[in-house]
Amino acid sequence: MKKLLTIISAALLSVLTAAMPCAVLSASAGADGGFTAEEIEASEIKPLLSLPKIELSEEELAASHNVLVTLTVSDANRKYASSEIWTVFDSRLSLPENPDGSPAVSAGDAVRLLSTRFRKPSYYDSEQKKLIEQNGVRVITAGSANYGLDGYIYTISVTLPDNAKPGDVYPLRFFYADSETTHNKFTNSMFTNKANDDTGKLMQAWTFTNGLSDGYIRILGESPEPDYGDANLDGKVNLADAVAVLQFLTNSGKFPLSEEGYNNADVCQRGDGLTASDAISIQRYDAKEIPALPESWSQ
Fold first, then answer.
1. Are strands 169-174 and 130-132 parallel, antiparallel or unpaired?
2. Whole-angstrom distance between the N-terminal and C-terminal Cα of the chain?
């Protein structure tokens, strides 16, 4: 089975490489909602959900290890009502909690007219028969009409670890949750209108295939260079690393990467978080199509 997976992944990567080198690609099979790429591109509404890209100087880090992280939405004003958005942060970041264990966030103006709840982005994996604990915020909204606005959805103060140092990168990313990625029929990423009609379903498909912008917290300054491309930490950069990235993107609970492996594998557009494009860049490097990683630095 492992050999077959490697062969299939190699073939898939070869096709993608020929078509879209170092491009942002969706790795979530169900995120398109069954629509074609052409249908999604024709969507009337094209929202953007964004996590911040934060860079801290050594002086700022020395002054405080607390950082404000916000989730924002744009180009969807009065267009959405029902949403379920999973945002997952680097496990080294500490999040404040309410007495009930939910993340202690401040709701933003974008959802002030909607009924909104904030929960941990964790789930029970029925295949592994265990709770998958993820660090971050899960947003759930509902409304009697399309009262969702543009702007901040939430703000939360996260705490960097005591040993944070120059060169560290702490990814802030979106997680597409459905029965395939979580093996739990009750998880369902959403971003649609009250009617959940074709317009709403296309908007949702656009959002989860094209409208997500991952973020990070980066500490500026000199540090040892990562072993670019070595996702599985075996000391080599080859197709196995590309497969490890794809498996992680498909089901991070079942196929986790260490923080070092995640950081090593971010080689397409360095600092934008892990996508299928990073797997393609690793495959291109393994095939000697590019001279060095990160790919964006070798062009």
1. unpaired
2. 36
Q: Using CA atoms, how far apart are residues 215 and 89, in angstroms rounded to an integer?
A: 9
CA distance 103 to 119: 6
Distance CA(190)–CA(83), nearest Å, equals 5
DSSP for the chain reads: -HHHHHHHHHHHHHHHHHH-TT------TTTTTT--HHHHHT-S---EEE--EEEE-HHHHHH-SEEEEEEEEES-TTT--EEEEEEEE-TTSB--B-TTSSB--EEPGGGTTSEEEEE-S-EEETTTTEEE---EEEEEEE-SS----SEEEEEEEEE--TT--TT-EEEEEE---SHHHHS-TT---EEE-TT--HHHHHHHHHHHHH-EE-EEEEE-S--PPP-TT-SS-SS--SHHHHHHHHHHHH-TTTS---HHHHHHH--SSTTS---HHHHHHHHHHHTTSSSSSSHHHH-
Q: In the structure, what pLDDT confidence band is assigned to residue 23 with cuts at 50, 70 and 90?
A: very low
How is residue 19 written in tokens? 């078509």
C-alpha span between 233 and 265 (Å, rounded): 10
Q: What would the two tokens of residue 126 be?
A: 């029925």
> CA 203, CA 263: separation in Å to the nearest integer?
31
For residue 167, what pLDDT is reported? Answer: 83
Q: pLDDT per residue over 221-278, tens digit each?
A: 876 678 999 999 999 999 999 999 999 988 887 888 988 899 899 998 776 678 888 9
Domains of the chain with CATH codes: 2-25+224-298 (1.10.1330.10), 45-219 (2.60.40.680)
Angle 239-250/276-286 helices, nearest 10 degrees?
A: 170
